[in-house]
Amino acid sequence: MHLLTGLVIVVMAVALLRAIVPAQPTLTMLGGSIAALVLLVAYRHDLLGTEFWAGAIGFVAILSALLVVLHPNPMVSVLFLILNLLCVALFYIMLQAHLMAVLQVIVYAGAIMVLFVFVIMLLNLRAEEGLRLGSGAERWLAMGLGGVFAALLFWALRHRGGQAWAGPGRYIEGFGTARDMGALLFGEYLFVTEAASVLLIAAMVGAVLLAKRRLE
Amino acid sequence: MDPATLRVLIEATVKIALLFGLNLTVVAYMTLVERRVSAWIQDRRGPNRVGPFGLLQPLADGIKFIFKEAILPPHAHTALYLLAPVIIFVPAMVTLSVVPFGPPVELFGLSIPLQIADVDGGLLVILGLSSLGVYGVALAGWSSNNKYSLMGGLRSSAQLISYEMAMGFAVVGVLMTAGSLRLDDVVRSQMTHGWNVLWQFPGFVVFLTAAFAETNRLPFDLPEAESELVAGYHTEYSGMRFSMFYMAEYANMITASALAATLYLGGYHVPGLARLGLSPNLAALVQVAAFGFKVAVFLFLYVWVRWTLPRFRYDQLMNLGWKVLLPVALGHLMWVAFIVLAGWA
Predict the structure, then answer these.
(1) Which residues of chain A neighbour B77 with C-beta distances below 8 Å?
(2) Do residues A91 and A57 lie in contact, with contact meaning Cβ atoms separated by under 8 Å?
(3) Chain B residues within 8 A of A120 when measuring between CB atoms
């Protein structure tokens, strides 16, 4: 746990620096490389251990998430978002939730992000290069809200509920496989699942209706 | 490191090396097959100068690709331009790892499954990885900073999303009869219930059509339609970078063929083999050969269709995907649900 806390602090520091000094994303890269080096040195005796991998993947996840926001080129931002989603999928695999991991890759990384890429290509958003920062008040507000979010995150990490992790490679009864997940979705949570699907269809019909210039 | 971990590592490494080599060899010789078969269909001779029957032609092509100048267009987005061939090539090579090639074989007193990874969501892993390949095409089109490339990239992302839906629905039918996402379970269920192609013919047709579109092969190769887009998304690529797109296309064809054989033609199952009373390892060999034959049939079909049908127009492609294949796949799903409920499968 202390490892993840340390990582979050390093990344937050880099982000803060970045928010104050509007420079190129190379600064983020530099901070990231230093953090990676620290990580490698700290875990040089246990490079195949679970904690090292959790830290390494989490590190890539946080770094890519930062670059989504900080990179001036929208297409590159989208690619870092995909990298971030893939890291989250790896976390699901480490937690034995294989189906969730695969669905994460298919639905988010594979389908939804293609639409992002599609829209960026369609609009050809090259002119957006060069980061536009908000006014002074906006920046302070954003930093304040970010601080609140970070505090919440720390609180959640400290007081996390639920059962302890069973360890790598161990199957937890009734958790993670396609069969278990199906039983949950179409058993206990059937109403929620169906309600969500109706909601999505309503949203889609609404979008089509709004996009149509003239109703016939 | 304890012996059990070491054994798993060695076994996996050997299997990965074998499959990688096999995959690349088949890719190389598919290019030759494509040219020889197209020549045969068009009543020509085809490449037959390099080696006996032109068998060394892929080698000559490879050497030529390596020695071609690798052009880096000055107006391209360099990083993404270099990354795109990698993004398309890696998933194309990796997807075959969850396909079972045969029943487990006994070697050195160990039972070795002929599959690199038997994961719980095997089929979904293939769909997920192949859906990542589209970024290669889209990025190649965008980063080349060329209008033809951009059009190709746009078309491919729209096309892949459209046909993924139909393909997914067709595959759900197979999963319902097998009751599992593991490809080995799908093969085993077909041993007891008969091949899926008999029960689920509409699903098979939808799957095959969508697979043609997903691999960007004719009649759905609009992203690189040379009559209107020069060479589409890979217009600006040359040398080995171009050849990576080319190899990825053939690797995707192999994966799609292996998947079609596994899902609908019983995978490595050979009807009536158990009655011959062969030793387990010999039977496994026969079954691997049968699987190879089934894959080869689909690969030939790919080539055959390419040199027989003309290319679709873009609106025809979209109409076929959304207005024909998707409803057919949905109707088929109802039919399979009925079969499963009635207890026929």
Answers:
(1) 73, 75
(2) yes
(3) 142
Please state the ipTM of this predicted complex. 0.79
- The residue of chain A nearest to residue B164, with distances taken between CA atoms, is A111
The tens digit of pLDDT for each residue in A43-94 reads 666 666 666 777 778 878 887 887 787 777 788 888 889 989 998 888 888 7
Nearest by CB to B120, which of A73, A114, A178?
A178
Nearest to A8 by CA among A75, A85, A79, A61: A61
C-beta atoms of A111 and B80 within 8 A: no
Q: How many CA atoms lie within 13 A of A72 on its CB side?
A: 13
* Cβ pair B164, B93 in contact under 8 A: no
Six token digits for residue A173? 């009864």
Whether B115 contacts B99, CB under 8 Å: yes
Instruction: Find residues 162-181 of chain B whose CB sits inside 8 Å of chain A.
Output: 164, 180-181
Residue of A90, A104, A108, A117 best to disrupt the B interface, most CBs of B under 10 A: A117
The pTM for the full model equals 0.80
Backbone phi and psi for residue B279, each to the nearest 5 degrees, phi listed first:
-70, 150
Dihedral of the CA atoms B195, B196, B202, B205 (nearest 10)? -80
Place of tokens 């969730």: A100
Nearest to A122 among B127, B128, B154 (CB): B154
Average pLDDT, consecutive stretches of 10 residues, N- to C-terminus, chain A (216 residues)? 60 59 59 71 66 76 80 82 89 80 85 83 62 68 86 76 51 70 84 92 90 72
